[in-house]
Design goal:
Blueprint lengths: L1 H20 L1 E8 L4 E4 L2 E2 L3 E2 L5 E5 L2 E8 L6 E7 L6 E4 L7 E8 L4 E6 L5 E6 L5 E5 L5 E5 L9 E7 L2 E6 L3 E6 L5 E6 L6 E7 L2 E6 L4 E6 L4 E7 L4 E7 L2 E6 L4 E6 L4 E7 L4 E7 L2 E6 L4 E6 L4 E7 L4 E6 L5 E6 L17 E6 L4 E6 L4 E6 L5 E6 L4 E7 L2
Length: about 400
Protein backbone atom coordinates (compact mmCIF):
# COMPACT_ATOMS: atom_id res chain seq x y z
CA UNK A 1 0.00 0.00 0.00
CA UNK A 2 2.82 2.35 0.97
CA UNK A 3 4.57 1.58 -2.34
CA UNK A 4 1.39 2.28 -4.35
CA UNK A 5 0.88 5.64 -2.61
CA UNK A 6 4.49 6.52 -3.30
CA UNK A 7 4.11 5.72 -7.00
CA UNK A 8 0.86 7.74 -7.20
CA UNK A 9 2.48 10.71 -5.46
CA UNK A 10 5.40 10.52 -7.88
CA UNK A 11 3.05 10.44 -10.88
CA UNK A 12 1.19 13.51 -9.63
CA UNK A 13 4.47 15.39 -9.21
CA UNK A 14 5.50 14.52 -12.78
CA UNK A 15 2.08 15.45 -14.17
CA UNK A 16 2.14 18.79 -12.34
CA UNK A 17 5.67 19.51 -13.53
CA UNK A 18 4.67 18.57 -17.07
CA UNK A 19 1.70 20.93 -16.96
CA UNK A 20 3.87 23.72 -15.56
CA UNK A 21 6.42 23.20 -18.34
CA UNK A 22 3.85 23.75 -21.05
CA UNK A 23 3.97 27.03 -22.95
CA UNK A 24 0.87 29.14 -23.69
CA UNK A 25 0.57 29.65 -27.45
CA UNK A 26 -1.99 32.00 -28.99
CA UNK A 27 -3.79 30.85 -32.15
CA UNK A 28 -5.63 33.06 -34.64
CA UNK A 29 -7.03 30.74 -37.27
CA UNK A 30 -10.11 30.51 -39.48
CA UNK A 31 -12.70 29.30 -40.21
CA UNK A 32 -13.77 29.64 -36.55
CA UNK A 33 -14.84 25.97 -36.39
CA UNK A 34 -11.25 24.81 -36.65
CA UNK A 35 -9.80 22.18 -34.33
CA UNK A 36 -6.15 21.51 -33.47
CA UNK A 37 -4.70 18.01 -33.15
CA UNK A 38 -1.30 16.69 -32.12
CA UNK A 39 -0.30 13.03 -32.39
CA UNK A 40 -3.89 12.18 -33.25
CA UNK A 41 -5.36 13.80 -30.15
CA UNK A 42 -7.63 16.85 -30.18
CA UNK A 43 -6.10 19.62 -28.08
CA UNK A 44 -8.17 21.62 -25.63
CA UNK A 45 -7.79 25.39 -25.35
CA UNK A 46 -8.71 28.42 -23.28
CA UNK A 47 -10.93 30.94 -25.13
CA UNK A 48 -9.99 34.60 -24.90
CA UNK A 49 -12.11 37.76 -24.77
CA UNK A 50 -10.61 38.94 -28.06
CA UNK A 51 -11.85 35.84 -29.89
CA UNK A 52 -8.47 34.12 -30.06
CA UNK A 53 -7.48 30.84 -28.42
CA UNK A 54 -4.69 29.85 -26.05
CA UNK A 55 -3.29 26.33 -26.34
CA UNK A 56 -0.75 24.94 -23.86
CA UNK A 57 1.95 23.05 -25.75
CA UNK A 58 5.15 21.33 -24.65
CA UNK A 59 8.33 23.28 -25.38
CA UNK A 60 10.43 22.36 -28.39
CA UNK A 61 9.45 21.02 -31.83
CA UNK A 62 5.71 20.28 -32.03
CA UNK A 63 3.71 19.27 -35.07
CA UNK A 64 0.04 20.19 -35.08
CA UNK A 65 -2.76 19.56 -37.57
CA UNK A 66 -5.69 21.91 -38.12
CA UNK A 67 -9.01 20.74 -39.52
CA UNK A 68 -12.43 22.27 -40.14
CA UNK A 69 -15.61 21.04 -41.86
CA UNK A 70 -15.44 21.63 -45.62
CA UNK A 71 -11.81 22.77 -45.48
CA UNK A 72 -8.56 21.15 -46.50
CA UNK A 73 -6.50 20.17 -43.44
CA UNK A 74 -3.24 21.91 -42.67
CA UNK A 75 -0.11 20.71 -40.88
CA UNK A 76 2.22 23.09 -39.04
CA UNK A 77 5.64 22.52 -37.49
CA UNK A 78 6.09 24.78 -34.47
CA UNK A 79 9.14 25.59 -32.38
CA UNK A 80 7.35 26.16 -29.08
CA UNK A 81 9.04 28.51 -26.64
CA UNK A 82 8.15 31.27 -24.24
CA UNK A 83 7.38 34.57 -25.90
CA UNK A 84 6.86 33.06 -29.36
CA UNK A 85 4.73 34.94 -31.87
CA UNK A 86 1.13 33.87 -32.10
CA UNK A 87 0.21 31.31 -34.71
CA UNK A 88 -1.83 32.83 -37.55
CA UNK A 89 -3.15 30.67 -40.36
CA UNK A 90 -6.24 29.96 -42.43
CA UNK A 91 -7.73 26.89 -44.05
CA UNK A 92 -8.81 26.82 -47.67
CA UNK A 93 -12.11 25.38 -48.95
CA UNK A 94 -11.79 21.75 -49.99
CA UNK A 95 -13.59 22.59 -53.23
CA UNK A 96 -15.31 25.57 -54.80
CA UNK A 97 -15.05 28.36 -57.33
CA UNK A 98 -11.85 29.82 -55.86
CA UNK A 99 -8.58 27.97 -55.35
CA UNK A 100 -5.50 29.50 -53.73
CA UNK A 101 -2.45 29.35 -55.99
CA UNK A 102 0.19 31.29 -54.09
CA UNK A 103 0.93 33.98 -51.54
CA UNK A 104 3.85 36.42 -51.59
CA UNK A 105 5.34 39.01 -49.28
CA UNK A 106 5.01 42.66 -50.32
CA UNK A 107 6.39 45.98 -49.17
CA UNK A 108 4.76 47.73 -46.23
CA UNK A 109 0.99 48.30 -46.26
CA UNK A 110 -0.07 47.08 -49.74
CA UNK A 111 -2.97 49.41 -50.48
CA UNK A 112 -4.24 48.38 -53.90
CA UNK A 113 -3.60 45.91 -56.72
CA UNK A 114 -4.00 45.83 -60.51
CA UNK A 115 -3.17 43.42 -63.34
CA UNK A 116 -1.26 44.34 -66.47
CA UNK A 117 -3.27 44.51 -69.70
CA UNK A 118 -2.04 41.05 -70.74
CA UNK A 119 -2.60 39.55 -67.27
CA UNK A 120 1.03 38.42 -66.96
CA UNK A 121 1.93 40.80 -64.15
CA UNK A 122 0.28 42.18 -61.07
CA UNK A 123 1.10 45.55 -59.52
CA UNK A 124 0.80 46.41 -55.82
CA UNK A 125 0.77 50.06 -54.64
CA UNK A 126 2.44 50.51 -51.26
CA UNK A 127 1.22 52.95 -48.67
CA UNK A 128 4.11 52.33 -46.27
CA UNK A 129 7.05 52.38 -48.71
CA UNK A 130 8.00 54.15 -51.92
CA UNK A 131 6.52 52.79 -55.10
CA UNK A 132 4.76 49.80 -56.61
CA UNK A 133 5.83 46.15 -56.34
CA UNK A 134 5.64 44.08 -59.56
CA UNK A 135 4.99 40.31 -59.56
CA UNK A 136 4.91 37.65 -62.24
CA UNK A 137 1.61 35.81 -62.76
CA UNK A 138 1.04 33.05 -61.75
CA UNK A 139 4.35 32.39 -59.96
CA UNK A 140 4.12 35.58 -57.85
CA UNK A 141 7.86 35.94 -58.16
CA UNK A 142 8.73 39.55 -57.39
CA UNK A 143 10.26 41.14 -60.46
CA UNK A 144 11.01 44.69 -59.34
CA UNK A 145 9.71 47.81 -57.66
CA UNK A 146 8.56 50.85 -59.60
CA UNK A 147 9.73 54.05 -57.92
CA UNK A 148 9.30 57.51 -59.47
CA UNK A 149 12.56 59.41 -59.78
CA UNK A 150 11.30 61.97 -57.27
CA UNK A 151 8.99 59.73 -55.23
CA UNK A 152 11.21 58.87 -52.28
CA UNK A 153 8.49 58.76 -49.64
CA UNK A 154 5.58 56.33 -49.38
CA UNK A 155 1.88 56.97 -49.51
CA UNK A 156 1.00 55.28 -52.82
CA UNK A 157 -2.75 54.76 -52.69
CA UNK A 158 -3.71 53.24 -56.05
CA UNK A 159 -2.34 51.71 -59.25
CA UNK A 160 -3.90 51.29 -62.70
CA UNK A 161 -2.85 49.83 -66.07
CA UNK A 162 -4.17 52.20 -68.74
CA UNK A 163 -3.34 52.92 -72.38
CA UNK A 164 0.06 51.24 -72.56
CA UNK A 165 1.11 52.72 -69.22
CA UNK A 166 1.01 51.96 -65.51
CA UNK A 167 -0.21 54.81 -63.33
CA UNK A 168 0.10 55.16 -59.60
CA UNK A 169 -1.25 57.97 -57.45
CA UNK A 170 0.57 59.25 -54.37
CA UNK A 171 -1.04 61.01 -51.43
CA UNK A 172 1.04 64.13 -52.03
CA UNK A 173 -1.19 64.80 -55.02
CA UNK A 174 0.94 63.42 -57.84
CA UNK A 175 0.17 60.79 -60.45
CA UNK A 176 3.23 58.91 -61.77
CA UNK A 177 3.32 57.11 -65.13
CA UNK A 178 5.52 54.15 -66.21
CA UNK A 179 5.81 52.45 -69.59
CA UNK A 180 3.77 49.23 -69.46
CA UNK A 181 6.30 47.20 -71.49
CA UNK A 182 9.64 48.39 -70.17
CA UNK A 183 8.32 49.61 -66.79
CA UNK A 184 10.58 52.64 -67.20
CA UNK A 185 9.51 55.80 -65.37
CA UNK A 186 8.00 58.40 -67.71
CA UNK A 187 6.71 61.42 -65.81
CA UNK A 188 4.83 62.83 -62.82
CA UNK A 189 1.96 65.30 -62.69
CA UNK A 190 0.25 67.01 -59.76
CA UNK A 191 -3.37 66.05 -60.33
CA UNK A 192 -5.13 64.81 -57.20
CA UNK A 193 -4.78 67.74 -54.81
CA UNK A 194 -3.26 65.53 -52.12
CA UNK A 195 -4.72 63.01 -49.68
CA UNK A 196 -6.27 59.62 -50.41
CA UNK A 197 -7.06 59.21 -54.09
CA UNK A 198 -7.89 56.38 -56.48
CA UNK A 199 -8.05 55.82 -60.24
CA UNK A 200 -10.74 54.36 -62.53
CA UNK A 201 -10.29 53.65 -66.24
CA UNK A 202 -13.27 55.04 -68.17
CA UNK A 203 -12.03 53.90 -71.58
CA UNK A 204 -11.50 56.13 -74.63
CA UNK A 205 -8.36 57.60 -73.08
CA UNK A 206 -10.09 58.99 -70.01
CA UNK A 207 -9.44 58.30 -66.32
CA UNK A 208 -11.45 59.30 -63.27
CA UNK A 209 -9.37 60.50 -60.33
CA UNK A 210 -11.37 60.44 -57.10
CA UNK A 211 -10.20 62.13 -53.91
CA UNK A 212 -11.55 61.05 -50.51
CA UNK A 213 -10.32 64.01 -48.54
CA UNK A 214 -11.37 66.75 -50.96
CA UNK A 215 -14.71 65.17 -51.91
CA UNK A 216 -13.76 65.62 -55.53
CA UNK A 217 -13.82 63.58 -58.76
CA UNK A 218 -11.74 64.77 -61.73
CA UNK A 219 -11.87 63.68 -65.36
CA UNK A 220 -8.32 63.20 -66.66
CA UNK A 221 -7.21 63.00 -70.28
CA UNK A 222 -4.65 60.18 -70.28
CA UNK A 223 -2.65 61.48 -73.25
CA UNK A 224 -2.12 65.05 -72.01
CA UNK A 225 -2.16 64.21 -68.27
CA UNK A 226 -4.52 67.14 -67.72
CA UNK A 227 -7.80 67.47 -65.88
CA UNK A 228 -10.62 68.05 -68.37
CA UNK A 229 -13.29 68.60 -65.71
CA UNK A 230 -13.55 68.53 -61.95
CA UNK A 231 -16.61 67.94 -59.78
CA UNK A 232 -16.85 68.76 -56.07
CA UNK A 233 -19.30 66.70 -54.04
CA UNK A 234 -20.60 67.42 -50.54
CA UNK A 235 -19.28 64.24 -48.98
CA UNK A 236 -16.34 61.88 -48.58
CA UNK A 237 -15.81 60.13 -51.92
CA UNK A 238 -15.04 56.45 -51.28
CA UNK A 239 -15.99 54.54 -54.42
CA UNK A 240 -16.41 55.10 -58.15
CA UNK A 241 -17.99 52.80 -60.75
CA UNK A 242 -18.58 53.57 -64.41
CA UNK A 243 -20.88 52.17 -67.05
CA UNK A 244 -22.49 53.50 -70.25
CA UNK A 245 -21.65 57.15 -69.72
CA UNK A 246 -22.57 57.31 -66.03
CA UNK A 247 -20.33 57.43 -62.99
CA UNK A 248 -21.59 56.20 -59.61
CA UNK A 249 -19.86 57.85 -56.65
CA UNK A 250 -20.34 56.69 -53.05
CA UNK A 251 -20.42 59.42 -50.40
CA UNK A 252 -19.39 57.63 -47.21
CA UNK A 253 -20.48 60.21 -44.65
CA UNK A 254 -23.75 61.04 -46.40
CA UNK A 255 -25.07 57.52 -47.02
CA UNK A 256 -25.56 58.37 -50.67
CA UNK A 257 -24.58 57.58 -54.24
CA UNK A 258 -24.18 60.49 -56.63
CA UNK A 259 -24.83 59.66 -60.28
CA UNK A 260 -22.53 61.67 -62.56
CA UNK A 261 -23.16 62.32 -66.26
CA UNK A 262 -19.77 61.72 -67.89
CA UNK A 263 -20.60 63.96 -70.88
CA UNK A 264 -21.15 67.04 -68.71
CA UNK A 265 -19.26 65.86 -65.58
CA UNK A 266 -22.10 67.08 -63.42
CA UNK A 267 -24.29 65.37 -60.84
CA UNK A 268 -27.43 64.01 -62.42
CA UNK A 269 -29.20 62.58 -59.37
CA UNK A 270 -28.42 61.45 -55.80
CA UNK A 271 -29.71 58.20 -54.29
CA UNK A 272 -29.84 56.87 -50.75
CA UNK A 273 -27.44 53.92 -50.42
CA UNK A 274 -27.21 52.77 -46.79
CA UNK A 275 -25.50 54.22 -43.73
CA UNK A 276 -21.81 54.15 -44.74
CA UNK A 277 -21.44 53.24 -48.42
CA UNK A 278 -17.91 52.57 -49.57
CA UNK A 279 -17.18 50.16 -52.46
CA UNK A 280 -19.40 50.27 -55.53
CA UNK A 281 -19.71 48.23 -58.74
CA UNK A 282 -22.22 47.99 -61.55
CA UNK A 283 -23.27 44.79 -63.33
CA UNK A 284 -25.76 45.29 -66.14
CA UNK A 285 -28.64 47.38 -64.78
CA UNK A 286 -27.80 46.73 -61.14
CA UNK A 287 -25.62 48.86 -58.90
CA UNK A 288 -23.92 47.01 -56.03
CA UNK A 289 -23.05 49.22 -53.05
CA UNK A 290 -21.15 47.93 -50.01
CA UNK A 291 -22.36 49.38 -46.70
CA UNK A 292 -19.63 49.18 -44.06
CA UNK A 293 -22.03 50.03 -41.23
CA UNK A 294 -24.39 47.12 -41.85
CA UNK A 295 -22.02 44.61 -43.49
CA UNK A 296 -24.36 44.38 -46.46
CA UNK A 297 -24.35 44.83 -50.21
CA UNK A 298 -27.29 46.91 -51.36
CA UNK A 299 -28.52 46.15 -54.86
CA UNK A 300 -29.94 49.24 -56.53
CA UNK A 301 -32.00 49.31 -59.73
CA UNK A 302 -30.22 51.89 -61.91
CA UNK A 303 -33.51 52.73 -63.63
CA UNK A 304 -35.27 53.76 -60.42
CA UNK A 305 -32.50 54.35 -57.86
CA UNK A 306 -34.27 52.06 -55.40
CA UNK A 307 -32.69 49.35 -53.26
CA UNK A 308 -34.47 46.10 -54.15
CA UNK A 309 -32.27 43.56 -52.41
CA UNK A 310 -29.65 43.32 -49.67
CA UNK A 311 -26.97 40.65 -49.32
CA UNK A 312 -25.11 40.04 -46.07
CA UNK A 313 -21.31 39.87 -46.29
CA UNK A 314 -18.54 39.73 -43.64
CA UNK A 315 -17.76 42.86 -41.60
CA UNK A 316 -16.45 46.04 -43.24
CA UNK A 317 -16.79 45.52 -47.00
CA UNK A 318 -13.91 47.61 -48.30
CA UNK A 319 -13.39 46.97 -52.01
CA UNK A 320 -15.14 45.49 -55.06
CA UNK A 321 -13.94 44.20 -58.42
CA UNK A 322 -15.92 43.07 -61.46
CA UNK A 323 -14.77 40.41 -63.91
CA UNK A 324 -14.21 41.61 -67.49
CA UNK A 325 -17.27 39.76 -68.79
CA UNK A 326 -19.45 41.28 -66.05
CA UNK A 327 -20.60 37.91 -64.73
CA UNK A 328 -18.90 38.00 -61.31
CA UNK A 329 -18.21 40.52 -58.60
CA UNK A 330 -15.73 40.09 -55.77
CA UNK A 331 -16.08 41.83 -52.39
CA UNK A 332 -13.14 42.22 -50.01
CA UNK A 333 -14.25 42.56 -46.37
CA UNK A 334 -11.66 43.64 -43.81
CA UNK A 335 -13.27 41.78 -40.89
CA UNK A 336 -14.29 43.12 -37.48
CA UNK A 337 -12.28 46.09 -36.29
CA UNK A 338 -9.88 46.03 -33.40
CA UNK A 339 -11.86 47.76 -30.61
CA UNK A 340 -8.85 49.96 -29.79
CA UNK A 341 -7.95 51.05 -33.33
CA UNK A 342 -9.17 49.85 -36.72
CA UNK A 343 -5.63 50.23 -38.02
CA UNK A 344 -4.54 47.31 -35.81
CA UNK A 345 -5.30 43.62 -36.47
CA UNK A 346 -8.81 42.79 -35.33
CA UNK A 347 -10.22 39.64 -33.74
CA UNK A 348 -10.79 37.93 -37.08
CA UNK A 349 -9.35 37.71 -40.55
CA UNK A 350 -11.11 39.35 -43.47
CA UNK A 351 -12.83 37.49 -46.27
CA UNK A 352 -13.33 37.71 -50.02
CA UNK A 353 -16.80 36.87 -51.32
CA UNK A 354 -17.70 36.10 -54.93
CA UNK A 355 -21.19 37.11 -56.13
CA UNK A 356 -23.01 36.63 -59.41
CA UNK A 357 -25.17 39.25 -61.14
CA UNK A 358 -28.18 38.31 -59.02
CA UNK A 359 -26.31 38.93 -55.80
CA UNK A 360 -26.03 35.24 -55.01
CA UNK A 361 -22.90 34.06 -53.21
CA UNK A 362 -20.81 31.85 -55.51
CA UNK A 363 -17.79 31.38 -53.25
CA UNK A 364 -16.11 32.73 -50.13
CA UNK A 365 -12.53 32.41 -48.88
CA UNK A 366 -10.66 33.71 -45.87
CA UNK A 367 -7.99 36.33 -46.32
CA UNK A 368 -5.67 37.43 -43.56
CA UNK A 369 -5.50 40.74 -41.68
CA UNK A 370 -7.56 43.29 -43.61
CA UNK A 371 -7.92 42.30 -47.29
CA UNK A 372 -7.83 45.65 -49.07
CA UNK A 373 -6.64 45.75 -52.69
CA UNK A 374 -8.69 43.58 -55.08
CA UNK A 375 -8.59 42.89 -58.83
CA UNK A 376 -9.59 40.34 -61.48
CA UNK A 377 -7.18 39.47 -64.25
CA UNK A 378 -8.32 40.66 -67.71
CA UNK A 379 -9.47 37.17 -68.72
CA UNK A 380 -11.20 36.58 -65.37
CA UNK A 381 -9.20 33.46 -64.55
CA UNK A 382 -7.37 34.99 -61.56
CA UNK A 383 -8.33 37.09 -58.59
CA UNK A 384 -5.65 38.89 -56.58
CA UNK A 385 -5.98 40.66 -53.25
CA UNK A 386 -3.69 42.18 -50.65
CA UNK A 387 -3.70 41.69 -46.88
CA UNK A 388 -2.98 45.26 -45.83
CA UNK A 389 -1.69 44.70 -42.29
CA UNK A 390 0.27 41.54 -43.17
CA UNK A 391 2.23 42.92 -46.16
CA UNK A 392 0.91 40.00 -48.15
CA UNK A 393 -0.42 39.28 -51.66
CA UNK A 394 -2.73 36.37 -52.48
CA UNK A 395 -3.53 34.91 -55.90
CA UNK A 396 -6.55 32.68 -56.53
CA UNK A 397 -7.69 30.83 -59.61
CA UNK A 398 -11.36 31.45 -60.38
CA UNK A 399 -13.40 28.49 -61.66
CA UNK A 400 -17.07 29.49 -61.43
Amino acid sequence: MKCALSLLFGFLILATASAQDRVPVTFKAFPPEYEVFSRGERLSYSPRDDGLRTYFLPPGPVRVNLTAPGSSPQSLSLDVKAGMARVETKLEPRQGAMALLREASTGKLPRSVAFSADGKQVFVALQGEPGVDVYDVPSLKKEQRLVPSDGVQGGFTDVLAVGGEVWTVQNDGRVHAFDAKTLAFKDSHALSGGGNAFLTDLGSGKVALSNWDLGQVSLIDAASRKAVSSLSLSGSVRGFAFRQGLGYVTLFDKGQVAVVDASTWKTKVVWSAGKAPRPVAVLGSVLFVGDMASAQINLIDTATGKVFKTVSVPSNPHAMAVSADGSLMAVASRGRNNPSDYQLPGPEFGRVTLLNGKGEVVASVWGRNQPTGLAFSPDGSYLAFTDFLDNNLELYRVNP
